[in-house]
Design goal:
By secondary structure, the chain is of the alpha+beta class. It has two domains: 4-177 and 298-377, Zn peptidases (Aminopeptidase); 178-296, Alpha-Beta Plaits (2-Layer Sandwich), CATH 3.30.70. It has helices spanning 4-15, 25-37, 49-52, 107-126, 146-149, 203-212, 254-274, 306-318, 332-338, 362-377, and strands spanning 42-45, 59-63, 73-78, 90-93, 96-99, 133-138, 161-164, 171-176, 178-187, 217-220, 223-232, 242-251, 287-296, 299-300, 323-326, 343-346, 359-361.
């Protein structure tokens, strides 16, 4: 029996425990306390902290269950939040929870964590029969899925599971794109902008020409591209010799990801190669350095995969009208799937995430906990 007010109290306590990326230690300590009280079989901290820079490793909390003959499952949430996420104070109006407006709320991903605590509390109270459960709590998800990338996943007993980490409710994400991270550094030639600008080459102008020739935004039904960070220049009276740009390309298709990434690289290289070199430049020529790195791989589950069959059956058992969708963003589930651990993403009720307008309807959190309970009960 999921208890709404108990779940609400848990959620508030989690949100008011600061855990910005790389400072998840207080949250990890709270989870150790909570799950120890709930009778966890073991609580393990992996060695990822030295590689992520967090003040704690990922947590893997195991419950042996009451029926070892059942298939082991895992549930995953991330402990970190984006900024401004320090000093969160929760405001409740009826069933709606927000921050005071000067911070995020933290329902991303504490709505998922709260539901897991309520799940384990309810299972213990009901003396329900369930199989082994592994609960995974990662660090640094918000800054590049770093905790998941360095998760010591060999410690898990379960071979399939669910990441609780997307907005809305009654949504199951079955696919998400891969992403390439781009770093572009343009090198022009500096010159005095008032005395002899004709002797310089503006890195800004080269970038503008290349960007004007690019297709950005929605590229097709399963691909996007964006240039989101730009910095450079020294002073208004100097022709800018350097400009740094960072961006990304995402696609559900590995082939399209490669094609669209190459198109961006080629556009910048072509502009630089064809840019006229001033007579006074001597041996100096403009150039461009481009790095394209896979940020995370794609994930794609199939309709008959056991991880989807189970949640579909659980939805029917719990009376939920589940929608199965593909997403446009990456999450820890991309990494978990790459380890050979089929992982579907389940919506937690979070809304307006990464903004100070973030909110949660506690009834959605209850609905999530009910679905999790039903997932565990499927035999």
């Amino acid at each position: 029996m999921i208890k709404k007010e108990r779940l609400a109290a848990t959620f508030v306590r989690l949100c008011e425990t600061d855990s910005p990326s790389r400072r998840e230690g207080r949250m990890a300590a709270l989870l150790r306390e909570q799950f120890t009280l709930l009778g966890a079989e073991s609580i393990e901290e992996d060695g990822s902290a030295g590689r992520t820079g967090s003040d704690t490793g990922n947590l893997i909390i195991k419950f042996k269950g009451t029926d070892p003959s059942r298939e082991a499952l895992f549930f995953s949430c991330h402990m970190d939040t984006v900024e401004p996420g320090t000093g969160v104070r929760v405001v409740r109006k009826g069933d709606i929870f927000t921050s005071r407006g000067n911070t995020i709320l933290g329902s991303d991903d504490k709505s998922g964590i709260a539901a897991l605590i309520e799940l384990m509390t309810s299972l213990a109270e009901d003396k329900a029969g369930y199989g082994p459960l592994d609960l995974v709590f990662t660090t640094c998800e918000e800054i590049g899925l770093l905790g998941a990338k360095h998760l010591e996943h060999e410690r898990l007993r379960a071979r399939l599971g669910y990441a609780l980490d997307t907005s809305g409710i009654d949504r199951v994400i079955t696919g998400a794109p891969a992403s390439n991270h781009l770093k572009i550094l343009l090198h022009g030639i500096a010159a005095h902008a008032g005395l002899n600008p004709e002797d310089g080459i503006s890195a800004f102008c080269m970038a503008a020409k290349a960007i004007a020739e690019l297709q950005l935004g929605r590229l097709d039904a399963e691909s996007t591209a964006n240039l989101g960070l730009i910095s450079g220049g020294v002073a208004t009276n100097i022709v800018p010799a350097q400009l740094a740009i960072e961006g990304e390309v995402r696609s559900h298709s590995a082939e399209k990801l490669a094609v669209y990434t190459d198109a961006i690289i080629t556009a910048f290289e072509k502009v630089v190669r064809e840019w006229p070199v001033p007579a006074g430049a001597g041996d100096r020529k403009p150039r461009v350095d481009v790095q394209a790195q896979l940020e995370y791989p794609s994930m794609r589950l199939h309709e008959d995969d056991p991880v989807l069959t189970r949640v579909r059956q659980a939805g029917l058992r719990a009376g939920k009208d589940l929608r199965f969708l593909r997403a446009g963003g990456g999450s820890d589930a991309n990494i978990l799937n790459s380890y050979g651990l089929p992982t579907a993403i389940i919506a937690t009720g979070m809304n307006g995430v990464h903004t100070t307008e973030e909110y949660l309807d506690i009834n959605d959190a209850v609905s999530l906990a009910e679905l999790l309970y039903a997932i565990v009960m499927v035999s």
